[in-house]
């Protein structure tokens, strides 16, 4: 069986250089890197990942816990995290909590056993103390916890722009559909900004919240059905996700309402399906790929003792399509 010394001799470099290539540490010229890879292939050398992990106290694994991987936002976020983790020489351990606290704790314990280098928390079912008791580098998504860096879009600006667009288009009776505001999420700022802007403009509005299971699509149907039953003359809707906006569009078709003739719709996220829908959904774009990249960078900076920003808030962009 070949050893790291054999690889170094075949590549014409030092053992230290081979180790740096394997661990993706320090500057290595592309020519040297390719020589090492070629030698490894010729010798069929397989590094002992467990031994390497124990030696350098790193596993090159990053954990990501999300509440609902089937939701397009979390699917696209996970895709971005995996891509950028791989660029750093890391693999992704993806866990789907389904907003179950016991399941989320089990996943955290599993990550500890696997010695993950850090955890990106996209699911926020657990109490704050559960996060504080972790010894790993942590990044939260769309949640502020003292002492832990987070990534989020400018939710407040997003809610304000959605309201201003609908009002500018002539809407005078607005509805806002959001997740449950009892959840301590930065996304709640979308709601507060929307309501404040509508109130300052003297425009009537109503806000409808989901129950605590914010990803229950049958709940979306119930809320939207009640909305049109009690307020059939609603002429503008802001939904805090493109998925909810798509459900509103579905109900408009069902009730014979013309979009945007009778009612205008704005979503949030700009996941890919927003542009695939017919008509295309106007939405507030948050830079999902950039947020995923930054989450990975924050893990690596904490590991390497580099300075990092605690609050990483990304600008939003209004993407106007056919629903407005």
Précis, in short:
This protein has 324 residues and is an alpha/beta fold.
Structural features, described:
This protein is of the alpha/beta class and 324 residues long. The protein has three domains: 4-47, no CATH class; 61-152 and 288-314, Rossmann fold, CATH 3.40.50; 155-286, Response regulator (Rossmann fold, 3-Layer(aba) Sandwich). Helix content is 46%, strand content 18%. It is built from 13 helices and twelve strands. The protein has helices at 4-11, 15-23, 30-43, 49-56, 72-87, 101-113, 128-132, 155-168, 188-200, 217-230, 242-255, 272-276, 288-304, and strands at 61-66, 91-96, 118-121, 138-141, 150-153, 173-178, 204-209, 236-239, 264-269, 282-285, 311-314, 317-319. The strands form two sheets. The chain has a six-stranded parallel β-sheet, sandwiched between helices. Strands 7-6-8-9-10-12 form a six-stranded mixed β-sheet, sandwiched between helices. Strand 9 (264-269), helix 12 and strand 10 (282-285) form a beta-alpha-beta unit. Helix 5 crosses helix 13. The relative contact order is 0.12. The mean pLDDT is 90. This is LacI family DNA-binding transcriptional regulator. Residues 2-56 form the HTH lacI-type domain. GO terms for molecular function: DNA binding.
């Amino acid at each position: 069986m070949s050893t790291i010394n054999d690889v170094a001799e075949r590549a014409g470099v030092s053992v230290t250089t081979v180790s740096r290539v394997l661990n993706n540490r320090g500057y290595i010229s592309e020519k040297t890197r390719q020589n090492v890879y070629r030698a490894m292939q010729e010798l069929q050398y397989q590094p002992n990942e467990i031994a390497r992990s124990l030696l350098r106290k790193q596993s090159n694994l990053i954990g990501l816990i999300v509440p609902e991987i089937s939701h397009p936002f979390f699917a696209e976020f996970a895709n971005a995290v995996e891509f950028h983790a791989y660029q750093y020489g890391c693999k992704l351990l993806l866990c789907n909590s389904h907003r179950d606290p016991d399941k989320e704790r089990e996943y955290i314990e599993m990550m500890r056993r696997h010695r993950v280098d850090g955890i990106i928390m996209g699911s926020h079912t657990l109490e704050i103390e559960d996060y504080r008791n972790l010894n790993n580098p942590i990044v939260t998504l769309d949640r502020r916890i003292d002492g832990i860096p987070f990534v989020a879009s400018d939710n407040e600006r997003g809610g304000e722009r959605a309201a201003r667009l609908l009002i500018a288009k002539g809407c005078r009776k607005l509805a806002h559909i959001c997740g449950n505001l009892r959840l301590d999420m930065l996304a709640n700022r979308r709601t507060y900004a929307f309501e404040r802007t509508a109130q300052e403009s003297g425009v009537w509005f109503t806000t409808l919240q989901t129950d605590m299971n914010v990803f229950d699509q049958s709940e979306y149907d119930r809320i939207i059905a009640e909305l049109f039953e009690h307020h059939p003359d609603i002429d503008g809707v802001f939904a805090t996700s493109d998925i909810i906006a798509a459900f509103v569009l579905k109900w408009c078709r069902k009730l014979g309402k013309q979009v945007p003739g009778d009612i205008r719709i704005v979503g949030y996220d700009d996941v890919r399906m927003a542009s695939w829908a017919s008509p295309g959904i106007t939405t507030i774009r948050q830079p999902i790929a950039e947020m995923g990249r930054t989450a990975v960078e924050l893990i690596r900076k904490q590991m390497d003792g580099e300075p990092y920003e605690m609050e990483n808030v990304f600008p939003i962009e209004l993407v106007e399509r056919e629903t407005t």
